[in-house]
């Protein structure tokens, strides 16, 4: 059964979402997105205290990289807090809608859960047409400056294969649709990952220059990091993604550069544990990270 302080199966996650939507129909609705490559049904959780108000939207996704289990756990914890905290309606949900896609890559996620030797799988599970290999790095598959840096063109590369073309994967296409359908109201996009406790903003495809709005991106990120630190968590390393290392085709650059989302980030929630995040730490770190999301919400509410 689903436990908010555990790494749950995709099936248990789906069941949790259905139950939560039934329990809080005035707050949480699920939008069917279609199916993953292997046929898993994907759902977007929309949390709003006033869906007809046309509020600014914060869109958060997680788990595009299969092995980064703490990311879906955080997305689900966020849903849990936003729908169960009695005061969320007066604070986090006031004037802002939260759209959350907790597992972007469910096929990869289930593959990493299937046995120990698959635990470090990163990519999707689509079959390549030009080879016997499987999977595309979803975070190299988005159609903005696709494949110009930090990618492999080899379908058998286990880490950074960008795919045969932009948006070759049904999973990245779904995220694109969410962004495009909500482009006007979408003010903040955060993609949750797990590596090195970084909070990075565009550009990711190059480290040679920054967007002209970089100071706003930087200062919102610093307010998030400060909030996590105040709650007892480790601070984030804040910079542009490309200053960390240049890699094109990420969802953060797509949201910012192609969709025009004013604030766009990749948030690496490692807390010192990279891919194999100890389950025992979840009750400590998820509430600390949650304070960072409150800071994100406060920043968006203030500006829009
Ligand atoms: O390489 C990635 O996709 C991300 N790091 S991870 O270790 N989780 O794989 C960082 C992505 C940062 N954004 C861009 N480079 N666009
Ligand atoms: Zn990742």
UniProtKB/TrEMBL annotation:
Keywords, in A-Z order: Carboxypeptidase, Disulfide bond, Hydrolase, Membrane, Metal-binding, Metalloprotease, Protease, Signal, Transmembrane, Transmembrane helix, Zinc
Keyword presence, Zinc: yes
Top-level taxon of the source organism: Eukaryota
Keyword Oxidoreductase in record: no
Catalytic residues (UniProt): 268
Domain Peptidase M14: 6-300
Family membership noted in the UniProt record: Belongs to the peptidase M14 family.
Protein name in UniProt: Peptidase M14 domain-containing protein
């Amino acid at each position: 059964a689903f436990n908010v302080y555990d790494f749950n199966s995709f099936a248990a996650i789906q069941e949790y979402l259905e139950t939560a939507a039934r329990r809080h129909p005035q707050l949480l609705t699920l939008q069917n997105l279609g199916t993953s490559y292997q046929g898993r049904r994907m759902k977007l959780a929309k949390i709003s205290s006033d869906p007809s108000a046309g509020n600014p939207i914060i869109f958060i996704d997680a788990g595009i990289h299969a092995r980064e289990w703490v990311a879906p756990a955080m997305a689900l914890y966020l849903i849990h807090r936003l729908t169960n905290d009695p005061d969320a309606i007066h604070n986090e949900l006031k004037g802002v809608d939260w759209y959350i896609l907790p597992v972007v890559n469910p096929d990869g996620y289930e593959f990493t859960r299937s046995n120990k030797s698959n635990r470090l799988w990163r990519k999707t599970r689509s079959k390549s047409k030009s080879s016997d290999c499987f999977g595309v790095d979803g975070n190299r598959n988005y159609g903005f400056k696709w494949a110009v840096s930090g990618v492999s063109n080899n379908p058998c590369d286990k880490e950074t294969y960008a795919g045969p073309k932009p948006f070759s994967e049904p999973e990245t296409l779904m995220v694109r649709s969410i962004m495009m359908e909500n482009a006007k109201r979408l003010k903040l996009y955060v993609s949750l990952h797990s590596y090195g406790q970084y909070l990075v903003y565009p550009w990711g495809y190059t480290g040679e220059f920054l967007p002209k709005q970089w100071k706003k991106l930087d200062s919102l990120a610093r307010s998030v990091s400060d909030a996590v630190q105040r709650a007892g968590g480790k601070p984030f390393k804040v910079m542009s993604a490309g200053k960390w290392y240049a890699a094109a085709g990420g969802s953060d650059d797509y949201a910012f550069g192609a969709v025009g989302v004013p604030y766009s980030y990749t948030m690496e929630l490692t807390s010192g544990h990279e891919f194999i995040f100890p389950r025992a730490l979840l009750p400590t770190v998820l509430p600390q990270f949650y304070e960072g999301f409150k800071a994100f919400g406060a920043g968006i509410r203030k500006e829009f």
